[in-house]
Queue: 3 jobs
Job 1
Amino acid sequence: MHDLSSDIDRLALVPLYIAVEPRDPRGEGPRSTEALEHIPAATLGEVAEVLIQLGVPADLLDGAVLGAPGWIVARTVGWSDGRIVRWAPDENPVNGPYPTLSSDDVATYLARAIDVSCRVASDLEIPGETSGDDAVGLVIEQRSGAVVGGMRSTDLPRLAHLASSDLWFAQIDGASIVAGVDPTTDLEPVVTCASPTANVGLERNGPWRRMGLVRSGAIVTAHQWGPQWFRVDPSGGADPASDVLALVDDYFDVPSADAEDIAQEFNLGPAQTDLLADLLDDVDVDDPFTALLRLLDLPVEAAEVAEGWLPPADLPGVRRVEAQPFVRAMWSSLTTVPTEPGRINDLQRLWIRRPRLYWVLSAVETVACAGGAVALLRAPMVGPTSRRTGVRRAAGWALAVAAVLSAADMAVPRRWRGSGATGSH
């Protein structure tokens, strides 16, 4: 048979959400005394039955858990042009590797089959109208997040550049907290940065909360709390290995962490590990971030920021770090006064602040290097091809370069050296 697929390389797999409206006419206009007060909303079972008839693999959720009673939300996957993938083993695909239906066809079929209005979009959003006919709606994926761990203060300009967004930075009880000035900032470059200790990324996405534990840039484990979706399998279990079903399973795969993995990173005892396991298993927990950070002995302010309860600008000692081009970000990292202890940080603080002792040592270093360079380069040559002569000249030129760099360093203007040291909120 002829290959009828075309242009699949230009198509991208995207999530598609189907919002099924309530069957309730109240508020739509004047009613007679004989009008029904309420028409029951569509049920999960009704919507699932229609999706099975269409061969659409999907997950279903009752809108009541999202604060929108009467609504039903389904999620599936499709292509960027709005075509939804189908499980239809007896059909040949005509555009792409899998059978598909357009989003409009799916919404129309659902509307006719269960007498409701349906909308399909790539965002999880429940539309609505005010009394003034202004479209408002309930946006489910309202994001906020924070990262808590061992991020160094000198790394923040570079991380702001990688995140392409301004960041808030604070340190509480020896741990660093980073959040985006824009609550929707993708903090992946921050949580995956190399740091002396493990980083914990916290993200709230509507009613869902996700935690990621990263060590040295590698993900150790991740976990998600939140409402559970009901799976719709159009094959009825007859084809569990289907590629189409796997697309939906893999795309919306929910991470589940092992308490032992987290306990090993934070040296938790048996009792704490048991409490952590109970927390991970509790799908209905109201405030998982706070409970988690208390178990890990990390500042709970990070949980309040991630939940959206505490504006990161209100963190104690917070500093705003602006996103800059690469070269300026690297210079800002170099000229940021470190807030952490350590000999390397002490040297960087000394270079930036430059007390009187620094100038004395730098002057001595410059004079010593220059004198050594002159002595080595003017010393009599043993022979034109002598290895000892070559080593002596190389050492002399190295000392000369060091003298020039030391002198140039002393000439760096103060306004250049302290560019990253300010900017506190």
Job 2
Amino acid sequence: MDLDVSQPAHVVGHSVLRADLGVGGRHIVVLSGIARPEWKIDDDSAHREVCRLRLREPAGTVEQSTVHVGLASIGNDDTEFVFATDQASVEVDEAGELVLITHLALMGEPSTLNRFSYQVVLTTRVVASEITGTISWPTAWFRPPLPGPAGVSGIFSILANERTVTPGGPPFGGEVEHLRPVTPGEIVSVTVAEDTCRATYRIAEPPKGRQLRVTVEQSGLRGPGNVSVGTVSPAADILTLSVAQPSAVIDFHATSVRVA
């Protein structure tokens, strides 16, 4: 049984209180609301379900937590019944967001467990995500006129894109890649040598738990042919960040292909 606070039909009265504790990126978070499983059975045997409620709250690392759930709205047609919230806990999914796990029980002919209330109080430590790396190119193709990031202003466009694929149609089949820009990057430093220039970039807080492709477009390098910017390995720019692995390093370099 999957519910989501972003769906009005799944939850009512969801609220969040967050306060910075001021030490080591720690926060205290209080979440409360009423979940709407709308679970109905017609049986004199007890049924059990696990309800997963996505709270859509970034948590990072949970250090301490308390969870309280309780029945809020139930119904029975004057028969023997069971209504229970047997167990509740929180976990952090791969995207670094909180999920409330509640074990429910129900019996009756018929019985309906319409709603249950919840309150989650926890202390968390923020786990920041980032993608860093370098972009290199021959100095002869472009020598920055100014030191630092200002010297390459407007030359590079750096993006972390959410990547999805769909089946390709005939006649070739395969997969079709779709990229949706989610987080831009920025140049943080530049070094210039006689042969090679190198810019260091950073993408701050790209989303966790989604497959990403990092792209770099250029509009200022003048090589002997068509210039493009890519990685050494074709798939090195595809990644998925998580709380356990919140950062990645991807290096790019410029190449030129002569036009016949």
Job 3
Amino acid sequence: MFKQLKRQHVINQLIKLGIRNIEGQPLQDALYTTLLKTLALKRAAQQ
């Protein structure tokens, strides 16, 4: 259950940044590692 909460938190952060899908896939269907990598890249681009 904790893993699901972490995953949902990452998805919520991506949505706040305006990302709704990754490579044509909904965020809920993307791999967790892909979600983390996308979030890290987006944060780095903002700084």
